[in-house]
From TrEMBL:
PANTHER family: ACETATE COA-TRANSFERASE YDIF, CHOLESTEROL RING-CLEAVING HYDROLASE IPDB SUBUNIT. InterPro entries: CoA_trans_fam_I, NagB/RpiA_transferase-like. This is CoA-transferase. It holds the Pfam family CoA_trans. Belongs to the 3-oxoacid CoA-transferase subunit B family.
């Protein structure tokens, strides 16, 4: 059976939600959204999903379709902030830049006074990264994103969290189209945990703009037959995953 790179990435994202318990899932992007749904149907049955607006939903609807799921609860914006501050949220965000300690930038590229590119601003990244588990999804692993030093800190990394004593800071993994990385390197630096099938350690190193910690590098696990069936038939029957990570 042929398994696509997108499906490997989706399972890696699902694994990042496995220990979330009854937290509300906030996945950004197609692959993280598949991962959160897959986790809810397998390893994290108590994971809460929203309709993307203001409702908690009972079922696990497919991507790309208007939800007709039973509404379990109301989730207004203020309630999201309560969940955030209480650590009952699990986010997988994107990043325009990320450095070796997990500092993330989604605000601007270039000099503060005259940036080359103005992005979306820091948004909720600071609060997310110091109050609950925050992980990152990068659909195109490159030296433009994995940089020695981010141009602006939006999401807080391990080095800065130590400096300010951020008690609830918990950035665990970065999943990309090439690999899974964690922060088990020296002083909480980024380590290459696994490479996806068909990817070499050297390829990941070449596309990373700083020196990665490398110990024993595993191959990212493949989805099981049951997980594949859920992804293909129930969660993403339209194949939207292959648009984010082409086969």
């Amino acid at each position: 059976m042929t398994i696509s790179r997108a499906e490997v990435c989706a399972v890696a994202c699902a694994d990042s939600f496995a220990d979330a318990g009854s937290a509300i899932a906030s996945p950004f992007g197609t692959i993280p959204s598949i991962g959160a749904r897959l986790a809810r149907l397998t390893s994290a049955p108590d994971l809460l999903l929203s309709d993307g607006e203001a409702m908690l939903i009972a079922e696990t609807p497919p991507l790309g379709e208007e939800s007709t799921a039973t509404v379990e609860g109301w989730l207004p914006y203020g309630k999201v902030l309560d969940l955030l501050a209480g650590g009952k949220r699990r986010v997988m965000m994107g990043a325009s830049q990320v450095d070796r300690f997990g500092n993330q930038n989604i605000s601007r590229i270039g000099d503060w006074a005259q940036p080359k590119v103005q992005l979306i601003g820091v948004r909720g990244a600071p609060g997310n990264s110091v109050n609950h588990t925050t992980n990152y999804w990068i659909p195109q692993h490159s030296t433009k994103i994995f940089v020695e030093s981010v141009d602006l800190v939006a999401g807080v990394g391990h080095d800065r969290a130590r400096q300010v004593g951020a008690k609830y800071h918990d950035v665990q993994v970065v999943v990309t189209d090439l690999a899974v990385l964690d922060f088990q390197g020296p002083d909480g630096s980024m380590r290459l945990r696994s490479v996806h099938p068909g990817v070499s350690v050297d390829e990941v190193r070449e596309k990373t703009g700083f020196e990665l910690a490398v110990d024993e590098v595993a191959e990212t696990r493949l989805p099981t037959e049951d997980e594949l069936a859920l992804i293909r038939d129930r969660i993403d029957p339209k194949g939207l995953r292959d648009k984010e990570v082409p086969a």
